[in-house]
Amino acid sequence: MNPYVLTILLSSLGLGTTLTFASSHWLLAWMGLEVNTLAILPLMAQHHHPRAVEATTKYFLTQATAAAMILFASTTNAWLIGEWDINNLSHPLATTVAIAALALKIGLAPVHFWMPEVLQGLDLLTGLILST
């Protein structure tokens, strides 16, 4: 992979993480998570091997499902409570869906079904980046 492209992708990973941690609004947090997802996908598929492509596809589908759940939870909370603030997630339905979505995004048990299968298709460095 071209060193300039690799630098841009790794910088995007840092930017997405910073944007997610620094946000106080659900849409900005979602945007940071999506920047991370889109930045790591080319890193996962850089080895043209069927297992790497399969792992990338599984990762993308899982992350897209979790992102849709986050958007659903934040929209439901904004509809019922009237605020998009992360600190004011007070409706039980929105809280439950948001926690389930975040657990799915990070591979927390019991929704960690995708993590071992994805890590098996990656090389060590990309697996370490994904795991952290």
UniProtKB/TrEMBL annotation:
Keyword annotations of the record: Electron transport, Membrane, Mitochondrion, Mitochondrion inner membrane, NAD, Respiratory chain, Translocase, Transmembrane, Transmembrane helix, Transport, Ubiquinone
EC number(s) stated in the UniProt entry for this protein: 7.1.1.2
One example GO MF annotation: NADH dehydrogenase (ubiquinone) activity
Transmembrane segments: 60-81, 93-115
Subcellular location: Mitochondrion inner membrane
A Pfam family recorded for this sequence: Proton_antipo_M
Catalytic activities: a ubiquinone + NADH + 5 H(+)(in) = a ubiquinol + NAD(+) + 4 H(+)(out)
Protein name: NADH-ubiquinone oxidoreductase chain 2
Native organism: Pantosteus santaanae
